[in-house]
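[step 3/7] inverse_fold.run input=structure_tokens len=124
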């Protein structure tokens, strides 16, 4: 395992950035009337995952770091909901949405494991 010297070294941050890039690509094909709806909300949620991982990493306490990781988890669930809705209303196909949902599931599991590890090593 390589040394983590920055949030950019975290695989969970890297994967969340990959998801954000995928969301930007996917939402380019959404209808124009969704520009301020699902497009904006999906992009915002995707960016929020990576941004909160980075912000938490930069905080001075483990408790604060965990707090921001939990916000990232919430944004990830929000993004998953937007993707499922886009598929259900026919804006996007399951073929396009399912791989991103699978990546989001992986990031969610990784965030959960990181939170548990940080909590287990927290000072009493």
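[step 3/7] decode complete -> sequence:
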């Amino acid at each position: 395992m390589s040394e983590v010297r920055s949030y950019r070294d975290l695989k969970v941050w890297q994967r969340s950035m990959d998801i954000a890039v995928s969301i930007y690509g996917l939402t380019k094909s959404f209808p124009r009337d969704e520009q301020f709806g699902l497009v904006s909300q999906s992009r915002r949620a995707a960016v929020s995952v990576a941004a909160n991982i980075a912000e938490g990493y930069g905080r001075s306490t483990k408790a604060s770091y965990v707090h921001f990781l939990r916000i990232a988890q919430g944004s990830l669930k929000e993004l998953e909901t937007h993707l499922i809705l886009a598929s259900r209303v026919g804006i996007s196909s399951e073929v396009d949405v399912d791989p991103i949902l699978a990546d989001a599931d992986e990031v969610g599991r990784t965030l959960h494991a990181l939170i548990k590890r940080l909590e287990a090593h927290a000072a009493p």
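[step 4/7] annotate
The first helix runs from residue 11 to 27.
Residues 69 and 114 are 8 Å apart (CA to CA).
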